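I hope you will forgive my troubling you with a question about protein structure. You will find the record immediately after this paragraph.
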Amino acid sequence: MTYPTDPARRPDLLRLPYDDYRALPAVANSDLSRLRDALNGRLPRTPGNQNALSFGTAFHTALLEPEQYQPGQPGLNDTLVWWLVEGVKLQPELRQLLEVGVPEPSCLFTEPTTGTLCKLRADLVVDQPDQPYTIVDFKTTGARDYEHFRAQCTGFDYDRQAAFYLDALHADRFLLVGVQKFEPFGVFTVEVTPDMLADGRRKYLYLLRLLQPTAELPSYLSETVRTISDNLGAQYKTK
């Protein structure tokens, strides 16, 4: 399966507050992660295991929407957050992309293979004349080095996210940027390869097919699928 990078086919990028994005009645990559976790027998996130997510959210806000950053949040090291931001900006290519890109754009689209209404919220989209249409996603990471982070891109299903976003926006390339949360605070930029995209595409299509009304599901998945579907329906009713 190929996805042409035809600008005329790209859906519009929307500038939405995060709460409005979350209320869109569509399937997000995070929904696919919940379904994956149910498949693998992983427990859903609870308030007790949100620390990594909270730090990652704070870092993303400081990097992409610094005017919205709120210092002094419980359990967060503001100095470390801004140290990581400066580390990213010391990388010439990343600094340039941050200067010209659109941060935190949202998109609503129909995935063509399954006909599923989907949504995404990218970290950064760069659309410049005579340059490849680029999506950049930043990850705080505990990876030891570049090769470790590259392996995590597959193990943590970042390849699935890359394919989901790139296919939706008909982008030319997807960059995954890992930022170490500990010394030496390295920054690892991985350009997602065609093979990684192919693997990621297989992953998201498999999960989307499980969400189809006609899908035959094992009993242990039915509750998770029903919860996701009910949440989408509830969001739709509030619009």
